[in-house]
Design brief:
single chain, 7-stranded antiparallel β-sheet, 28% strand, globular
Length: 168
């Protein structure tokens, strides 16, 4: 693995480990896995809608094996809290994604890292995969970029692809 590929893989793993997990509900001190409170909620809603509208393109890439590190983001509720987790090691069968919770919970206590989880495709809140050093999808990170430390945001912007999916 080249140095550049190693950096991209480390960044991708950091993202999956919870830097972009969202939460609703209030807490005095948020765990480090939760998104900052000062993001643009309308932009986040638009990002989720975009991910859902393009999920069939993501599924086609996944089923053809075009790319790597495929994951989908799922909302999980626990009382008044909703936290968004990446499902990794995914499978897709009959309109449902199956995979493992890919990051540690921040406020939701009903799941744990590595736990199996399933979700219908229309309920995901984002998707992500890597292809040729570029990150596709991950629309929900974009409304958070301005609230991140500048160096972190710069690294993410450098690998984010503007296209929905990699060219055929």
């Amino acid at each position: 693995m080249s140095e550049g590929e190693g950096m991209i893989r480390r960044l991708f793993l950091l993202l999956l480990c919870g830097l972009i997990v969202g939460c609703s509900g209030s807490a005095d001190k948020k765990p480090s896995t939760l998104a900052p409170a000062d993001f643009d909620e309308a932009a986040m809603d638009a990002a989720i809608e975009r991910a859902r509208s393009e999920v069939d393109q993501f599924i086609a890439k996944f089923e053809r094996g075009e790319g790597s590190q495929f994951a989908v983001k799922v909302p999980i509720e626990d009382g008044d809290h909703t936290e968004h987790f990446w499902l990794t090691n995914i499978r897709y069968e009959d309109g449902v994604f199956h995979g493992e919770i890919g990051n540690e919970p921040g406020v939701v206590k009903t799941v744990k890292l590595g736990q199996e989880w399933s979700i219908p495709k229309q309920e995901i809140t984002d998707w992500i995969y890597m292809d040729d050093g570029r990150m596709y999808g991950n629309y929900t990170i974009r409304p958070l970029l301005d609230s991140m430390p500048p160096a972190q945001a710069k690294h993410i912007r450098r690998i984010l692809a503007e296209d929905e999916v990699a060219e055929e």
